[in-house]
Amino acid sequence: MKMAERAAVAIVLILLFPMPVIGPAWGDDENTPGVAPCDLLLSSDGSRLFILEEGTRRLRITDAEGKTAPVFLCLPFKPTRMVFFPGEEQLAVIGGGPAGSLAVVSLPQLPEQEPAISSVYTVGHTPSGLAVGKHDGRTRIYVAHQFDDNVWEIDAETGEHLRTFDVGREPVSLAITPDYQNLVTTSMVAARRADVSNTMALAHVVDLADGNVHEIAMRNGVTNLREVTISPDGEYALMTGTVGNYLTVPVQVVGGWIVENIVSVIDVKRHELVDILFLDDVSRGAANPWGLSVSPDGEFLAVALSGTNEILLLPYDRIETILKEHPSGVRPGFGTYITYSSQSEDRLPMRMRTTLDASGIRHVVARGDSVWALSYFHDKVERIKVEANPPFKRVKDDYHYPNTPLLLQPEKDTPCTGEEPLRWLELEPNQLLSGLTIRRWSARLGPEPVMTPQRRGEEVFHDALICMEHWQSCITCHPEGRVDGLNWDLVNDGVGNPKNTKSLLLSHETPPSMITGVRADAETAVRAGVTHILFSKIPEEDYEAMDAFLSAMKPVPSPHLIDGRLSPSAQRGKFLFDAPRVGCSTCHPEPLFTDMSFHRSEARQYNEGMSKFDTPTLIEVWRTAPYMNNGHWLTIREVLLDAKHGNPDGRIDHLTEQELDDLIEYVLSL
After folding, report:
1. 77 vs 51, 121, 147, 152, 410, CA distance in Å?
2. Which residue among 80, 249, 442, 514 is least packed, with the fewest CB closer than 10 Å?
3. Domain final residue pick, 507, 524, 552
4. Domain boundary pick from 523, 552, 581
5. Residue range 269-327, pLDDT digits in tens
């Protein structure tokens, strides 16, 4: 399809499915058929599993051993996370995307009782992290809002919004210490300029007594801080993430050349990064660590490796030893690459890695010698159990555990409606060492989900098994299909010219691709990315599925909108945006807000050999900082005033302060 034809098709699509300013509702379920389990809790006595279902918008409460049928509670919004109240008589559920919602659910204490929604409260834009604690003798609910960049403290009984804590860019996970004194937040996206040699995502610790927020910088290049948990003693916060080696040219992927996978550990009371635990093997990556859990007895730290469909277990007492013996003054991560941990016959190895039966392993619960996990894409709940009978002796290559899970029973394809008790099917155990076996079970939560092209494309986009040595997947640099906030010196257009990661939203509708337009279209770019970044190839139908997934991505309504509409300031800004005396719409015309042409940019620096760059869409520009090809500017105001973007003749300089504010407000509303 030629560029003009593609643009015409895109215009028709946007006219049929308008931008969020006039609104398609967030949360259409076409890409999440089936159950799509998205969060997991286990009762303190180990008898009941609580499973949150994104696809069906339900809470499932089921007997953990599969002896009785589950009970369900339909939710009034698309859920994302949940957490118990103290005492486990209630739990809180968040979801709803831009129309953020919080539900308090009363849990059954007797077999004849059913769960019920006690109250529903309106919260902020895209609630993403959740914690419950006590303050001043009353139960408090804490909700992190990914796109409002804050955390709310809410009275659990009345729903009153008590305090707001500003916690930086895109908080996505929350955890509270056992004494309810400190709240820890994490972010997926780098929060500083990209054209510097030290940038990363940030964590924050909120002192709930005085309300002070303490910023904690991660190691250089760390992003994708997807989930955080607190150690049983409340001393440490552990969070999954990746280290992007963005200062090197990604001419290979082996050995973690581009990305390594980690758990970062911070001291909660001292407000500082203590150490980093590297999760990868020497020649086998532990891609995209997501959920993590420390068993209450401190036996294991369990990490969900969502990119490789595995669980990684680490003895937590050994981790505590590493943390407490870390030499003073030595940078975090130095000397703690735990692949080569010593092995003896009388203690467990430092790292125990086992495959599961399905993909999309995101959330885990560790309890004693067992771990439960969910498969987001295949609608399954998984369980593993460590059986240790020392002495431990190596019986095979450490780095090649079984990758093909086989069922011991023939009933793998027995139909499942999801309404019956869990039917645990035992898989072939992983024999890691002589004397060390990990037993595995899998149970369906419903019929086998239908894999639409979009859904299959989403699965491939998250899949690190297609990467050489399994170090990373597409979401590593494009979380949620957007940006990681880092500059990368890709070999697409020669080396020595690093450029900021580009959002993939509307990439198929706005050719050419890449900042310099070196790929004719997004289809070509997708295939080149697998070849030159993952150093692999996949079947053509998987490429086509990724094309379908990326094409189906919808813009998230801007937090600058008011009830889905432009504010009065943004309406005035739209007039200026289109006015000839300002002229922004010349290069960024509606409806795609790009003319799909090349223009000179003054923001070159590292790219002095290049005089023109592809015009990006401005849709969702509110969430794609840092800006311009070199990632030098953190705000649109800086782009206009300091970078002089679109201002070669001083036309922006002639705007009043109010007009400038209005123009910026409109751009940030797209």
Report:
1. 15, 11, 18, 19, 38
2. 249
3. 552
4. 552
5. 999 999 999 999 989 999 999 999 999 999 999 999 999 999 999 999 989 988 888 77
